[in-house]
Amino acid sequence: MSEAQSDELPAKGWRGSREGWLDAAKAAFLQHGLDAVKIQPLAGELKLSRTSFYWFFKDREALLDALLVDWEAKNTGAFVDACTAYAETIAEGVLNLIVVFHDPDLFDPRLDFAVRGWAHQSASVMQRVNLVDERRLATIRAMFQRFGFPSNEADVKARAVYLTQIGYISMQVQESTTIRMARIPAYVETFCGIDPTPSEMARFHARLRFDPMIQSGDSKTANE
């Protein structure tokens, strides 16, 4: 066997990694649904033996549970970080949170959508989703309270922010980045009662690598 041929094959006894199995399961889940998350097809995708799976997971249920743990850690962890991040005003705090929904490195909307679909098939998953929603809402509510909003008002505002964003995901709203970015200041004012300052919007755009001047120019060119 040539060196090139040997490089194409896994080393003898190689079992992959827990992360590799989990990533393959997530990809199958997102592309084809829950029924696609099965050990033998995943093993074929990874070019590993079926028995390799059992070095990392007890069974398929353990893999599915790991998918949920990964979803909670990534998507909900980003909420906590955003809502506790430094902000000079509540408007900037809300912008910090909105960044999460626009940055796939922080929050995976496809995964959130898929898990919510899964919850309609499983009472235990629905219970887990409900608990995650409550945790996220509590985190947003605490942010509003930090800026002096009374408990009841903070709760309503937290729900307005969160349910609007989850609605975007659940309805799979299709709109251009330019249009969505143009609506952000009005959303912020609606959510918290004050307009974001130009400097706050500039920091928001910078975090998302969005240049309103370039986007505006592209839109004009497209319409000419």
UniProtKB/TrEMBL annotation:
Q: Which InterPro entries match?
A: Homeodomain-like_sf, HTH_TetR
**SUPFAM superfamilies on file:** Homeodomain-like
| Keyword terms | DNA-binding
Keyword Lyase attached: no
Q: Which terms does the record give in the GO molecular function aspect?
A: DNA binding
What's the superkingdom here? Bacteria
Pfam families documented for this protein? TetR_N (PF00440)
Where in the chain is the DNA-binding region found? 38-57
HTH tetR-type domain ranges (all copies): 15-75
Protein name (database record)? Transcriptional regulator, TetR family
The top of its lineage is:
Bacteria, Pseudomonadati, Pseudomonadota, Alphaproteobacteria, Rhodobacterales
